[in-house]
Amino acid sequence: MGVVIRRAGESDRADVVRLLDEAFQDDPVSGWVFPGDEHRRRRHGALMEAFLDLALSQGFVDITQDGAAVALWWSVPAGEDEGGEEGPAQLRAAVDPDNARVEEIGRITGEAHPTDRPHQYLHMIGVRPGRQGEGLGTALIESVLERCDREGLHAYLEASNSRSRALYTRLGFHFTGNAIDLPDGPQLWPMWREPRPFVTPCGGPGEFA
């Protein structure tokens, strides 16, 4: 039986924030943004909730039916600056005003984000600890990439480790060639995906919408 995926909404807020908080507590990027363990435990969830709000307002959120994995996507039109110039500062003010790194990571990733073509941006994907390695994240991504191929849409993301980079490569993403180096922190790899020719279930060529 395949992985059942549904679109998450406001009623899923508490569950999604809890899942993302658990999934990314030990992530190198989260550790860079919140270098102190105690501080990270206190403020990390607020950042995850802010990211959820952005996805709900600018894109969509997919979750597995059992609530074990979630993906946050933004629908980015051409020519749009990710979050706008004031976005990172507003995020910092709302989440952790004394933490400059909340704003800094937003500006750094925003500067690297492509703006010349509309695309679906996989901002975050989290799998509950203990459920990783079951293919849940792959299923969440593939469900959206199938639509991208069907509709001729591009996709973009930033890989945060070599394992995820290898997975994204298998799914058709390619490293843009310009890594993001967080000051005294981990490296991110921006990756772009061109839509693949869509094939209908019956085996014939599909048509882009």
Low-confidence stretches: 204-209
Instruction: Count every helix, treating DSSP H or I runs of 4 or more residues as helices.
Output: 7
DSSP strand (E) fraction?
A: 15-25%
Mean pLDDT: 91
Order of helices and strands: EHHHEEHHEHEHEEE
Instruction: Evaluate the radius of gyration.
Output: 17 Å
* Helical amount: 40-55%
Overall, the morphology is globular
Strand runs, count = 8
Helix/strand class: alpha+beta
End-to-end gap? 29 Å
Main β-sheet description: 8 strands, mixed
Explained architecture:
There is one protein chain. The chain has helices at residues 13-24, 28-33, 37-58, 87-95, 100-112, 136-151, 162-170; strands spanning 5-7, 59-64, 69-76, 119-127, 154-159, 174-175, 180-181, 187-193. The protein has 209 residues and is of the alpha+beta class. Strands 1, 2, 3, 4, 5, 6, 7 and 8 form an eight-stranded mixed beta sheet that branches. The two termini are 29 Å apart. Residues 204-209 have low confidence and may be disordered.
What does this entry show, briefly?
Helices cover 42% and strands 21% of the residues.
Index terms:
209 residues; alpha+beta; 8-stranded mixed sheet; 8 strands; 42% helix; disordered C terminus
Question: What topology does this entry show?
Answer:
Blueprint: E1 5-7, H1 13-24, H2 28-33, H3 37-58, E2 59-64, E3 69-76, H4 87-95, H5 100-112, E4 119-127, H6 136-151, E5 154-159, H7 162-170, E6 174-175, E7 180-181, E8 187-193
Parallel strand pairs: 4-5
Antiparallel strand pairs: 1-2, 2-3, 3-4, 5-8, 6-8, 7-8
